[in-house]
Amino acid sequence: MRRALLVLFLILASNAAGLVSAAEGKRPNILFILSDDHTAAHLGCYGDATVKTPNLDRFAGEGIRFTKMFTVAPQCVPSRAGYMTGRSAVSVRMTRFNSPLPREIVTLPEVLRKEAGYFTGICRRSFHLDGPGPNRMGAVTKGVYQDNHLMTFDDRVDFLDRNSPRAQTKAKVTEFLEKVPGGKPWFFWVNFNDPHHPWDKDAINPPYDPASIKLPPHLPDLPGVRSDLAAYYAEIARADEEFQIVLDAVKAKGGFANTLVIFAGDNGHAFPHGKGSLYDPGLNVPLLMRWAGTIKPGQVSDVLVSGEDIAPTCLEAAGVTPPATMTGKSLLPLLKGEKFTPREFVFAERGVHGSSNFTEKTRSSGYDLSRCARDGRYKYIYNCTPWMPYSPVDSAGDPGWKQMAAAHDAGTLAAALDKTYFTSPRPIFELYDLETDPGELTNLAGKPEFKQAEARLRHALIEKMILDWDYLPLPSE
């Protein structure tokens, strides 16, 4: 009798294991590739006729391209916090650029590992969520980090490569895939350096001709602006080459059967109106997804997407219910062609950048406190430090900005651009009609004919700030 029961137990256990294995086999591998400082407009598949990105363009045609994807912040660290937590940077206490992600904040790879048995990893450029790194800390900061065990990502993933150079991309992807236990699904986050500032004018050969570039409405036609854009474009082309290196490495180690591949940017370009600002060039990044057999090829979606939405999308694709703390909205129904209710608004915040210290000479590039809400047509920006003089993040020393400043001093800069970049103090409230003013140069805040649109976005922002326990004062109702 005991032997019969033992045999029955073994059969049932074997069947159960088989069911678990079968369920795990249906869970997709997830490859998340992130470029650095990449505004969506600067890709061939987004309509840029100058930059050459054949690999990403082809990939976009094999899946779905999102036109209105907005990061939770126009800076590397808080944006990546949004991607990995499915929450805003404010709610996870990551509005200071060089903060470590708090230990109690749960990340996407941790949930995948615990709830779905994934093997997880991160590689290449710094993922920015463990603080500034030991080599960039002062003695006091380093002591605080060490004494309080604030660098936590060695415990959050199975494979961690903190900052390998581009030449190691293929090797690191291969190394990770070789470590994946047989039968386990995997999640791998690959980080690019490109097209981050400073821009390498020799990134590709031959370089781009500055005269061939079509300028966006928020930048003046100056030789320095064109030369800076040409160098930036070269790094985008190099990122396109690295993207294919990653795909080839994955293909060589097992291919893409049942693999969700996501390509996105962490924030926008380091030009005026871009990185560090809450205008669309700072927040609107590319988002491309491919999942053969699930995502119908050749799709283009104009729904609003937030950086908060990536984590819950990946979790639901893996058959895992996102934690209640995640405020992002899963895109899985849309990816599968099912009924999908899009979000009404996206939100973003701006805080301290880099390791900036507050002095009397601090400009907005190092310290700025602002929030925004955007719907499909209008953008509402709330500036809490409007007295900070504007300066672009990273590129203030480049020819483009220097020539813009010189044109301002000479009185030759176009009036709309001069008002946008050199008004001090800046307005506390800004409202833009993105259909009629895609460059976000004409502030409509306070105009009676736009009262309803402004109130709608202000009320949405107030709700977001309250629910995220934002530390800034609320805009008046």
Task: Report on the architecture of this protein.
- With 477 residues, the chain is α/β, with parallel strands linked by helices.
- It contains 14 helices and 12 strands.
- The chain has 2 domains: 25-336, Alkaline Phosphatase, subunit A, CATH 3.40.720.10; 349-467, Arylsulfatase, C-terminal domain (2-Layer Sandwich), CATH 3.30.1120.
- The protein has helices at residues 2-26, 54-61, 76-85, 108-116, 139-148, 153-156, 169-179, 223-252, 280-283, 310-317, 332-335, 399-410, 415-422, 451-467, and strands spanning 29-35, 64-70, 119-124, 159-160, 186-191, 259-265, 287-290, 299-306, 346-350, 370-374, 378-383, 429-433.
- A hairpin with a 3-residue loop joins strand 10 (370-374) and strand 11 (378-383).
- The protein is globular.
- Helicity, as a percent range: 25-40%
Helix/strand/pairing class, anyone?
Answer: alpha/beta
User: Element order, helices and strands?
Assistant: HEHEHHEHHEHEHEHEEHHEEEHHEH
Named CATH architecture of the largest domain: 3-Layer(aba) Sandwich
Q: Any idea of the CATH class of the largest domain?
A: Alpha Beta
Provide a compact summary of the structure.
It is built from 14 helices and 12 strands. The protein is of the alpha/beta class. An 8-stranded mixed β-sheet has the order 4-3-5-1-6-7-2-8, sandwiched between helices. A 4-stranded antiparallel β-sheet has the order 9-10-11-12.
